[in-house]
Specification:
By secondary structure, this protein is an alpha/beta fold. Helices cover 28% and strands 23% of the residues. It has 9 helices and 14 strands. The strands form 2 sheets. It has a 9-stranded mixed sheet with strand order 7-6-5-8-4-1-2-3-9, with helices on both faces. Strand 6 and strand 7 form a beta hairpin. Helix 4 packs across helix 5 and helix 6 runs parallel beside helix 9. It is globular and about 60 Å long. Bound molecules: flavin-adenine dinucleotide. Flavin-adenine dinucleotide (FAD) binds next to helix 7, helix 8, strand 13 and helix 9.
Length: 323
Amino acid sequence: MAEILVLAEHDGETVKKVTLELLTLARGFGEPAVVWLGSDAEAGRERLAEFGAAKVYVADGQDVTDHVVAPAAEVLASLVERVSPGGVLLAATGEGKEIAGRLAVKISSGVLTDVVGLTPSEDGGAPVAEQSIFGGAIVVKSRVTAGTPIVAVRPNAVAPETAAGAAEVEQVTVELSDLAKSARITERVAQERSERPELTEASIVVSGGRGVGGAENFELIEKLADSLGAAVGASRAATDAGWYPHQFQVGQTGKTVSPQLYLAVGISGAIQHRAGMQTSKTIMVINKDPEAPIFELADFGVVGDLFKVVPQLLDEIGSRAGS
Ligand SMILES: Cc1cc2nc3c(=O)[nH]c(=O)nc-3n(C[C@H](O)[C@H](O)[C@H](O)COP(=O)(O)OP(=O)(O)OC[C@H]3O[C@@H](n4cnc5c(N)ncnc54)[C@H](O)[C@@H]3O)c2cc1C
């Protein structure tokens, strides 16, 4: 069975959930082999084994870790040449998509990004991908017809499932080009960690928009998020107004999320906002305007003032949690 290379996303200690999702997907098409960049593979090995990684290729050293995306593409290109995998899976994050594009150029293969589903093809060729395109307005089916399929999959597109794997570690040494080393990382600043789940990985996201009315009122959105174990998101109107930090903006020029449940509170549903959330599995809306376009996407909608609806929702969640 051919190997399926999976580029691990990790922070040196923990393996990101999207990597476990990619491993789950990879098992349907071949033998999952993780590509881990950095010296800390032991930290993630157990978790990778739990989700079926047969192998872990580790590329280590300052050249790999101290430069932005280019080394990752060169390591993957070298492994593709060496092991002729059945495909390469990456996370459709900003970084993952850039690596995917660079890799595609290096190995003259087709690349698919923003993939939300992957199924085997009936003729035994490259798998068929469902891709969310044009800002999420259309879902198309596509497949790579040239070279090794490179597929960047959106976080939360599949549910991670465990399956035992050996996660056998193999060190790989790749001679990187000077070009790959031209952009060096000079400093790393650890982001303050909140207790909330990471926005793009969360199963539930509660987002607030202009309707929230001010920075101080975002406390209500945070309370609702915390009652559900959710991440907090925001529309651009809210982040541009300085009510919530830009890193939590959902949409075309913000983060793309695809949680099990997305709660849009006081958000109208502009096309640029939809682009970042409309592949969410269930969408719930609270908006006082029954004509707000966001209702077109809603599985469940409440027409009402969020300052009346959200406290009632919190009471209800609280009473259920207590019962
Ligand atoms: C190039 C470009 C990129 C963009 N990228 C993004 C992006 O990444 N993400 C993004 O979000 N936007 C983006 N935008 C902006 C986008 O076009 C909208 O302006 C923005 O999404 C509007 O945010 P909003 O829905 O919070 O505000 P509004 O459109 O002002 O909607 C506010 C909503 O709140 C409701 N409301 C008001 N008060 C209450 C209340 N008390 N209770 C309940 N409901 C209430 C109103 O009925 C209204 O529907 C982009 C725009 C451009 C041009």
